[in-house]
Amino acid sequence: MTTVTEVVEEAATPDPPPPPAAADAAPEFVRTVDRRLVHRAAVSEVFVTDLRRDGDGFLAGAQLPLSHGYFGDHLRRPAAFDFLLLLESARQACTAAGHLYYGVSRDTVFLVNGFSVRITDQDALTAGTRPGELVLEGGAVRDEGKGGRLRGVRFDVTLSLAGRRAARIGIDTSTAAGEDYRKLRFLQRRSTPPVTEDLDTTAAGRPADAAAVGRRNPLNVVLGEPVREGGAVSAPVEPRWENRSLFDHSYDHIPAMVLVEAARQLAHLADVPVTAPVTACTARFTRFVELDSSVTATARAARPGAGSPTPPCGLLVEFRQNGATVAETELDFGPAAGEEGA
Predict the structure, then answer these.
(1) Cα–Cα dist 135/165, whole Å
(2) Sequence-separated (6 or more) residues with CB below 8 Å from residue 204
(3) Is the pLDDT of residue 9 over 70?
């Protein structure tokens, strides 16, 4: 079973007109696309500014903000665009392209099986004095069952900043019609799942220290107090439901992006410096992460010889809920700021 990232909102509303066909010109960065195409409630959380058909693939543009309450809240200096901002921009572009170009109906829910992120040019992510203009070149492969019934879509995207190839992202999704998704959730739980907008916003316990996980704003901390045992570090996953960047609209589960943020924060609690950038991330999601049951993240060295807290290093983070593994994330980190070339 997979975990879902976004539940389509306002599925009954008519489709917006498609963007213009691709041309030789570069993507534009003058306005955002329709927020419904990228499954966002707030226009301020939409980063994609242009989307065009490009042969069998698609071409997109996204403007990366210099200041953002979540994606820009980091202790790393010099300031750089966050790898999760790149992932969110790619997710939005792929979601919109799926609806417009690859036959994914507007009442469809995307369920993420896994994704991979590889930063190919860390220096290209250094932020300047103007918002970043991200160019995304993507392609997709439909996974079809009997009778051509859509079962999922696999996306592959190359991301460039200022003419430099900065990252490569792959996203593997399954799909389900909105009503089928609701039936599936009820069948799995034998009950209707709660939703985030109905949950108490009071912190479940004492959160991890914001500075220790590389954050300034405590609202962006998604872990409780850590526990060290042997060579592993564990912490409960306890995001703040009122964080409108993490929970832009109501969810009936903890989404994949929150789990990856939890993995990164746990890596910092496991002594990876908060100024060390993520250079690669691979994630696999096997079950829905329920809102009404505790979930624990545990970090261990990902590979033999990768246990040093000084990057470059790799950590494997396992998420467990109700006695079962629900997700796994592997993170690689580069040298901390000031340690390049050391």
Answers:
(1) 9
(2) 224, 236, 238
(3) no
